[in-house]
Design goal:
Layout: E1 24-28, H1 49-54, E2 61-67, E3 69-73, E4 76-77, E5 82-90, E6 104-108, E7 118-122, E8 128-138, E9 148-152, E10 160-171, E11 178-182, E12 187-198, E13 207-211, E14 216-227, E15 239-243, E16 248-254, E17 257-259, E18 267-273, E19 278-284, E20 287-289, E21 294-300, E22 305-311, E23 314-315, E24 323-329, E25 334-340, E26 346-351, E27 356-361
Parallel strand pairs: 1-2, 2-5, 3-6, 4-7, 5-8, 6-8, 7-9, 8-10, 9-11, 10-12, 11-13, 12-14, 13-15, 14-16, 14-17, 15-18, 16-19, 17-20, 18-21, 19-22, 20-23, 21-24, 22-25, 24-26, 25-27
Length: about 400
């Protein structure tokens, strides 16, 4: 399975800005001072990220350039109509950025018990665009309950929230790393790429996204490692996706690994659709294995639709004989699942199965022979078994 074989590494690249306007640059350094009026000069940076954020104004685009170091921050709220880039990895002179997330660490002050690192709770019909680049987000030694939260308030009919994690490492969170709720007709787009979410107790799950009340949620994941989360907790699922009340969720996962997580919920990937909502889920070239529960669970109830496409994936529990997929449907709902060139084990169905459509074509059988880092070893049945990965004339795949 050629395209199951991928190298998971944090490529040292810089994120290219997608904003239409030239950003205003602010600078932050552990040797700076929050008494500086604007922090707009590299020679006069702020000392805290919060101080730089407090100086921003709605309607403008800001790039917060953060020098290497550890920053113990108070609750940093970002309000409506904000366009913020947080970029770590800068040297002390702000001449060169080297993207190593471990060199720029954000953690809460010990006095911030029970609060969040970032909180986006939007109440007006305005847009938010936030990106995090080349950073580590870490729980402090006090075990503060922190996470990144987005909740669309009312009215939100014309509102868009865009979140982008690129080359970000997160560890130690006792709550969700990211929770996002799109509702009232608003839309949230969250993208996580070339990042690592590991060693988070995360009792309610690592990534939790939902769409309800005609909201739209779009989750894009590429080159994400989700591992060793949920230890000594009652973690719901590493990735939990839900929709209800005419909400719609679209999820794309590719080139990722979800492995070695302790789960007391249903599955490593847990997808629920309820009450006239819909979920469309696509996963390519991804390994979901060695978690304490099954790889993928799909639920559809009360006239909802749950559609899944799997291609070139490995979905296992511990052995090839374990159930990898669970499907439950009732009340005029339907589930459609198509697996192509995958190692998927055996599906398990329950409820009213009359509207469950499951098709597995070109299924690959045999031990995937995964290494300790969950990549394929010599002799794996998955090597060269897939349909993707052929080079074409224009140099793409």
């Amino acid at each position: 399975m050629r395209t199951i074989i991928f190298t998971f590494s944090l490529f040292l690249i810089l994120q290219q800005s997608g904003f239409a306007y030239v950003p205003i640059n602010y600078y932050v350094s552990t040797s700076g001072s929050d008494s500086n009026n604007t922090c707009e000069q590299p020679a006069n940076p702020c000392k805290s990220i919060k101080a730089a954020l407090d100086k921003t104004q709605t309607g403008s685009v800001y790039r917060i350039n953060i020098a290497n170091g550890t920053y113990e921050e108070e609750n940093m709220g970002i309000t409506d109509n904000s366009y913020i880039h947080l970029q770590g990895g800068w040297d002390n002179d702000f001449i060169q950025q080297t993207c190593r997330p471990a060199t720029t660490v954000i953690k809460p002050k010990s006095s911030n018990n029970g609060s969040f690192i970032f909180t986006y709770i939007t109440q007006q019909a305005a847009d938010i665009e936030i990106s995090l680049n080349c950073l580590t987000l870490a729980e402090d030694s006090q075990g503060n309950n922190i996470h990144i939260a987005v909740s669309l308030g009312a009215p939100a009919s014309n509102k868009n929230v865009i979140l982008d994690f690129d080359h970000v490492r997160v560890h130690g969170f006792t709550n969700q790393v990211l929770s996002a709720e799109a509702k009232n007709g608003g839309k949230i787009t969250a993208t996580l790429s070339h990042s690592v979410l590991e060693n988070n107790p995360a009792k309610n799950g690592v990534i939790w996204v939902t769409a309800k009340d005609a909201g739209t949620m779009e989750l894009n994941i590429d080159h994400l490692l989700v591992t060793n989360n949920g230890m000594n907790t009652t973690m719901l699922a590493p990735i939990y996706i839900s929709s209800s009340g005419s909400g719609a969720v679209t999820t794309s996962i590719q080139n990722s690994i979800i492995a070695g997580n302790q789960i007391n919920g249903n599955a490593a990937l847990d997808i629920h659709t309820r009450n006239s909502s819909s979920s469309t889920f696509t996963m390519v070239n991804t390994t979901v294995v060695n978690n304490s529960r099954i790889a993928l669970a799909l639920f559809a109830s009360n006239n909802s639709h749950n559609s899944v496409s799997l291609q070139n994936n490995i979905l296992l529990l511990h052995t090839l004989s374990d159930d990898a997929i669970y499907l439950y449907q009732n009340d005029q709902s339907w589930i459609s699942l198509n697996a192509n060139y995958c190692i998927v084990g055996s599906p398990w169905t329950s409820g009213d199965t009359s509207h469950i459509s499951y098709h597995s074509t070109h299924e690959v059988h045999g031990d995937p022979r995964l290494s300790s880092t969950y990549h394929l070893r010599k002799g794996s049945a998955a090597i060269d078994a897939g349909i993707c990965g052929e080079w074409i004339n224009n140099g793409g795949i």
